[in-house]
Design goal:
It contains one helix and no strands. It has one helix at about 25-30. The radius of gyration is 15 Å and the shape is elongated.
């Protein structure tokens, strides 16, 4: 199984989840406000 597009809550399979962990250096947070939003208004 690969990644799937996000579905509405009533169609989403309840047994699947995507989890991730990241260690981010504090300097990154200074740069975030300067980034342009990408797809869905999120910072990519």
């Amino acid at each position: 199984m690969g990644l799937q597009q996000r579905r509405s809550p009533h169609e989403a399979p309840p047994t699947l989840a995507v989890l991730g962990r990241s260690i981010i250096e504090p300097e990154v947070f200074v740069l975030l406000p300067k980034q342009q939003p990408g797809a869905g208004g999120e910072i990519q």
